[in-house]
Model the fold of this input.
Amino acid sequence: MRIMLLGAPGAGKGTQAQFIMEKYGVPQISTGDMLRAAVKAGTPLGLEAKKVMDAGQLVSDELIIGLVKERIAQDDCAKGFLLDGFPRTIPQADAMAASGIDIDHVIEIDVPDEEIVKRMSGRRVHPGSGRVYHIVYNPPKVEGKDDVTGEDLAIRPDDEESTVRKRLGIYHEQTKPLVEYYGKVAEQGKLTYNKFDGTQSVGDVSEAIVKAIG
Ligand code: AP5
Ligand code: ZN
Done:
């Protein structure tokens, strides 16, 4: 099963990815997490990506496409995968199609911009795994600590309000066109396209996803 999550920054892609991975037994491919790991490791890719990410902009299509193709070629992706944060431009979607990498289910999570700005200020992440929390809506069992490892949680550098607003602008300009793009592919019967109201609770969104894709 090949699933793709589509939604604005902070819509809840990473949060639902944790659930979907467990439910359907497919690995998560989060381009954001992969880039953050490269930043942490101080690789040349990470050094290049850090400036762009901290400014709330997108890294180059070429770089991301190469990264994802390499990841999909790994053995654990043979049974399917969950794309989180990719494709997020038309050229990225075209590159997938040109490589014959088809998607079975597109899951759009819709949340209004103002709600997102509010949410991001309360987000906490576990840098090692990419697990996501919210201090009010989805708190860890112990304040400031990851549920699984007990390690410290962190605030993402790109969650500052002005950067979040910039990321939202880029989403509307460059990623939102994918709604129509994959809508058309769905009309041809090549995938299922479902849109979910991401302002519901985390559990309600998960439940709706399972109802829709089985
Ligand atoms: P990436 O890491 O993908 O960031 P994003 O798309 O901006 O999305 P987020 O991770 O911010 O949000 P999310 O939808 O996962 O929400 P979450 O579940 O965390 O990318 C980061 C950067 O990397 C980009 O800006 C770019 O520079 C670069 N990049 C990555 N991919 C790229 C690509 N393909 N091309 C080019 N550049 C790329 O939830 C947010 C908060 O809300 C959390 O606190 C959570 O607990 C809470 N929450 C979740 N669901 C609910 C709910 N239902 N109710 C209440 N609170 C909720
Ligand atoms: Zn995410």
Observations:
- Residues 161-175 form the longest helix (15 residues).
- The chain is about 45% helix and 15% strand.
